[in-house]
Amino acid sequence: MSVKEKWAVITGASSGIGTELAKLYSTRGFDIVLVARRKERLEELAAKLKCQTRIIAADLSDREQCKAVFGEVEDLNVQLLVNCAGFGALGQFEQIDPDRQADMIAVNCTALTILTQMFLKDFKYRDSGAILNVASSAGLMPGGPGMAVYYATKAFVVSLTNGIFEELRSAGSHVKISALCPGPVDTEFNDVAGSDFGMKGITPQYCAKCAARGLDHGERIIIPEEAFSAARIAAKVVPERMSMKIVGLNQSSKLGGLL
Ligand SMILES: NC(=O)c1ccc[n+]([C@@H]2O[C@H](COP(=O)([O-])OP(=O)(O)OC[C@H]3O[C@@H](n4cnc5c(N)ncnc54)[C@H](OP(=O)(O)O)[C@@H]3O)[C@@H](O)[C@H]2O)c1
Predict the structure, then answer these.
(1) 204-252 tens-digit pLDDT
(2) Within 6 Å (CB) of ligand 1, which residues are found?
(3) How many whole angstroms from 85 Cα to the centroid of ligand 1?
(4) Collapsing DSSP states into helix, strand and coil, what is residue 34?
(5) Residue 170's domain is classified under what CATH number?
(6) Does the N terminus or the C terminus of the chain have fewer Cβ atoms within 10 A?
(7) Is the residue at 137 inside a domain?
């Protein structure tokens, strides 16, 4: 391993925000480890990037495969971990396939926790490195009727990141950690979730740019859109029941008014 090389490990790199973060960090002098299930997508992306790449095809709903990701990059000088893999599912809580909900918790929360812990140990030892956890504006809300598990997983990511941020800050560590909390972003998310934002999202390119800038600046919570920053402040003053009613009404229109 050359000490001049610095690597970024990016999960969810086969699509959307993860793909754009891989492209962006490749232009910032990083070599990139691309992680997702769809190997052919990762190979296509790797062919386009002007840097060294390593491809890891892994299903992150499986704990052993998460741990194996760490094992497969132990020889590299990893300076950045981006936990971007994730998905949602629209529907009333009891009607969504329980295996799908469990997989969502596994990918959005468990995999992110395992990878954060494994890489953070190294980063803290070296007192350098950064972790970007992709949460969502959903994680800043008190709850999400119509996507209850998804919102809960993202609230977990925000809370976990806040806790680690404070541990690092009080230890005087130079390691950075941020939670990215975008509103709608135009990716394959809706196709997978069976949802529809009902409003125009930002581009994944813009989202990636804001994420990298926020991480550079040591922001604990990164919100790419001004409108959603305002919504975050509003969420603090609007009663929780009213916030959830607004979220519920939005999801309800997609579910044919079932909520
Ligand atoms: N789009 C939005 O509006 C929005 C807003 C806020 C937050 N987010 C968050 O942003 C992140 C990226 O989503 P996106 O919008 O870019 O959606 P996307 O285009 O659907 O990308 C999702 C990525 O997650 C990977 N993934 C899903 N399940 C996986 C599994 N079991 N194992 C490994 N990788 C898995 C997918 O790869 P494979 O299918 O190849 O495995 C894909 O690369 C997610 O965490 C999402 O919750 C999205």
Answers:
(1) 999 999 999 999 999 999 999 876 666 677 667 777 777 777 777 777 6
(2) 12-18, 36-38, 41, 59-61, 84-88, 107, 134, 136, 182, 184-185, 187-189, 192, 201
(3) 4
(4) strand
(5) 3.40.50.720
(6) N
(7) yes
